[in-house]
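Note to self: keep these together.
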Amino acid sequence: MSIQPNLLSRITIDPEICHGKPVIRGLRYSAESILDLLSSGMTNPEILSDYPDLEQDDIRAVLLYAAELSRVKSIERINA
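Structure:
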């Protein structure tokens, strides 16, 4: 699978934008909101139609960002 080398650079974090949440290219579209739209069943073309500022690579960047965050380095058992 070929990943655009700077795809993750589309995800930016700025304390002045959306309270420092990860957003797409400094716009006020949070990665979280795009993931919510995808998980609700919206397709990429539907999202791009509703949000004309976004590009296909923005959605790919959000998915890659989520994948990177979900990578587990180690698992430790917590005794309750």
